[in-house]
Amino acid sequence: MSKYKINPLWPxxxxxxxxxxxxxxxxxKDFAQRFKPDQSFQDFINSLPDLLAAKDFKRFISFIxxxxxxxxxxxxxxxxxxxKVGLNPLIIDLMExxxxxxxxxxxxxxxxxxxxxxxxxxxxxxxxxxxxxxxGMAEETGEALNKAINQGSQDDIGIGESVGRMIANSxxxxxxxxxxxxxxKLNIPVTVHVSLGTDITHFHPNVNGEAIxxxxxxxxxxxxxxxxxxxxxxxFINIGSAVVMPEVFLxxxxxxxxxxxxxxxxxxxxxxxxxxxxxxxxxxxxPFKKEKGKGFYFIGHHEIMIPLLAAAIKSISxxxxxxx
Length: 324
Hints:
Blueprint: H1 41-47, H2 52-70, E1 74-78, H3 81-84, H4 88-96, E2 102-106, H5 107-119, H6 126-129, H7 139-154, H8 159-168, H9 179-186, E3 190-193, H10 209-228, E4 234-239, H11 244-258, E5 266-272, H12 277-285, E6 294-299, H13 302-322
Parallel strand pairs: 1-2, 1-4, 2-3, 4-5, 5-6
Helix pairs in contact: 4-9, 7-8, 7-10, 8-9, 10-11, 11-12
């Protein structure tokens, strides 16, 4: 017998209720469905459970379908890691079929895209190269990109168009898998948003800060024009940019609303490895002032999540082709 003066509070007087009368968050109707090998990819998407992130993903894909039907833009904004994990062919494929209407990236994006086009490889070993001061010292990367930007500034065009033109008109052996060259050939706008001092090209001999500033600022205002077209059901997707593109997007949105734009009805999504403050606030939460728009945040490796997204978008295209 216990020596404690207080007794356990046994559940004799507990008030209960029938389980079937309770409202529950999970219903068997929302469970995943079995997927058979002979089914379509659209069937696979539909087979996902109608719960949490899978439910959000299916809903987001429906908004992309809505944007396509309304002929509203789908804008891909990205960090350079998207290129470094080998996703260029998938993004080019989506551009070619009309599922991506514009690209936006930071300054690192043009570096990796150029190196892929020029040499078929990119992403140096920073830990090794930095020890002897050779990080970022690849001659052709700095020389070619700065030359393109300098010429583009003289021609009054932005960095995205300048670099895309340079790669598209080159004899680089791998330019077919260049995002910028492909976009240039397809007449798809690319905007590049540079933070001075963050890119290796900024310390090469032919760098010109005035040209970079002028061309990148032109890209910002071009980006504003692209974002303005989202109103009415367009889609903005940010992949792997934790700081630059979320800040650029928020500033563009404020600029457009200040000029009298409604900017009430559009959709956004972030795909990244982790939840980051600026993408969450600037792309998912802060932009929406009414219930017409919505943002989604998807966590996972780019090399898995973006092929999944691309295949889902392609399945929409296939469905549209079969049901004109």
